[in-house]
Amino acid sequence: MKIREIIVPAKITYPRLNRGLTLIEVMLSILLLTIVVIGTSGYRYYSAMDARRAIKHETAARIASLLNEGWRGIVPLGNDPYDPAILNGFIPDFTIGTFGNGPAVPDGFELLNGTNYRVVSGNTNYYVTMSYQVADTDSLDSTHDRMILNIQVAWPITTQEVSYTTTDYKIFAMTTYAERGRP
Looking at the domain assignment, is residue 151 inside a domain? Predict the structure, then answer.
């Protein structure tokens, strides 16, 4: 054994216990956090937008139901035309008036009072077409007519509405039957 080998010890390395994060690790963690935050905010945006659309759809269905029930209550009284404008003032945040255009009248149906209607509810315009058709009355006596009542309510897809066109609106339709002439 040589003396030199005994006197000079081998180089000792110590592990680094207080090691910090490298720049690459910091950049990757920031990138990952950014992706998560952007994904979450996109989810929140689309869920809020879908909630607004659902509220408009629900309001259109309620308008159609309200007009339908009012119209069905008038039909049995005879030939008196139903005027939906009588609802003005009874329901808060609800205004109805005549309007020039709206959803198309189905084939074979006649437009009620020869006009369409516009309902304003919740700062949104809803365009209403109310039409009817006298059904086949062969099975009924001459004093009773079965009527088919059709109500279509359209509302804008976007928040910006310029004029009514069928491509910019969604439509909720409701059809029901009533018998005219029943006491």
Answer: yes
Distance CA 126, CA 173 (A): 13
**58 within some domain:** yes
Range of the domain at 174: 26-180
Structure tokens that stand for 93 in this block = 């945040």
In this prediction the pTM is 0.72
> Residue 140 CB: number of other CB atoms within 10 A?
13
Q: Is residue 165 part of a domain?
A: yes
Other CB atoms within 10 A of residue 149 CB: 21
Sign of CA dihedral 152, 158, 161, 166: negative
Give the count of domains, the chain.
Answer: 1
Amino acid at 9: P
**Three-state secondary-structure class, residue 131:** strand
CA 62 vs. chain centroid, Å, equals 12
The answer to whether 60 and 153 have CB atoms below 8 angstroms apart is yes
CA distances to 55, 90, 122, 124, 177 from 93, rounded to whole Å, are: 15, 9, 6, 10, 29
Best CA proximity match to 153, nearest among 134, 175, 135? 175
* Residue recorded with tokens 């409701």: 174
154, 171 contact by CB (below 8 A): yes
pLDDT tens track for 90-109: 888 888 888 888 888 999 99
